[in-house]
Design goal:
The chain has about 140 residues and is mainly beta. It contains no helices and 13 strands.
């Protein structure tokens, strides 16, 4: 999967793609209008962060490239790639338990904190694109 050269773009079916883990310098796009929401993305090789309407949605350390990021009423799903293993945090409902599936493998249930954040470690190095699904 290639990095998103335009930093953020709309996809068919209400998904977005964002991030560029290959950049040496920080880059950002603000007020990107997609499907009735305003997005802000900051990305480079050390960090990728996404906000929707001023609220936290996604963050990875180090930076990642994300394709087909879809928000559903019961969670999120996306494809991610990067040069190194990454810690990914997504913003969901607070104090809620979610099933997490990474690369087709169930890794169990994880509960969000009071801020609604859920963090997972994802092995990306040498793996190419990895699918992540987080559902109630």
């Amino acid at each position: 999967m290639a990095a998103v050269s335009e930093l953020i773009r709309k996809e068919d079916g209400g998904a977005i793609s964002f991030g560029n883990h290959t950049l040496d310098a920080k880059a950002k796009v603000e007020d990107f209008d997609a499907f009735g929401n305003l997005y802000k993305v900051k990305t480079f090789k050390e960090l990728t962060k996404l906000e929707r309407d001023g609220l936290f949605v996604y963050e990875s350390e180090p930076g990642t490239s994300v394709n087909n990021f879809t928000v559903q009423p019961d969670g999120v799903s996306f494809n991610v790639c990067g040069d190194e293993d990454a810690m990914i945090t997504v913003g969901l409902k607070e104090d809620t338990e979610y099933n997490v599936n990474v690369a087709g493998r169930d890794i169990g249930k994880i509960k969000t904190n009071l801020g609604g954040k859920l963090s997972i470690s994802v092995e990306l190095c040498g793996k190419g694109e990895i699918n992540v699904k987080v559902t109630e």
